[in-house]
Amino acid sequence: MASVTFRDETMTGRAVDEFRLPGLPERISARELVRLRVREEVARHNAAPSHHFRGLVRPTDAEAELNGYRLRTARRLDWDRQADAAEAAFARNGFLLLVGDRQIEDLDTEIDLAADPVVSFVKLIPLVGG
Q1: Is 54 exposed, middle or buried (0-12, 13-18, 19+ CB in 10 A)?
Q2: pLDDT (tens digit per residue) in 14-23
Q3: Domain limits of the chain?
Q4: How far apart are CA 59 and CA 77, in angstroms?
Q5: pTM, two decimal places
C-alpha cells in the first residue's frame, strides 16, 4: 500500500495547502486519484460543516474567496457531485495535475504512487477579458 501527499500549489510552485492520504494502491489512475482527493476533502468538510470550504472545485452556490469558497449556508456537500465537477474542471483546463516532474494530461493515465508519492494541483485562474 502507498501513501500520497496531495499538494495545492501556486503557478510559481509554492505550496499553499497539503494533506496526506495513506492506504492507497501503488498504481492508480489519475481519475481515481482526483476522485479520492475530492472525497477526502468533502469528508473533512462534512465532519464539521461550515460556511467555508477548502477544496479543489467550487461547490454550487458558493463564492470564491482567498484560500477556498464561501457557502451561503453551512451545509454538507455531495462528494460525488464535487468529484464530477473536478473531472469537468480538469477537462476544461481548470487546474493542472503534476506528478513528480510531469504534467498529467489524461485522467486515464496510470500513476505509480510508490515512485511519485506527491501529487500537485495548480488551479488556473481565467484571464479577465481573455
Answers
A1: middle
A2: 898 999 999 9
A3: 2-123
A4: 8
A5: 0.91
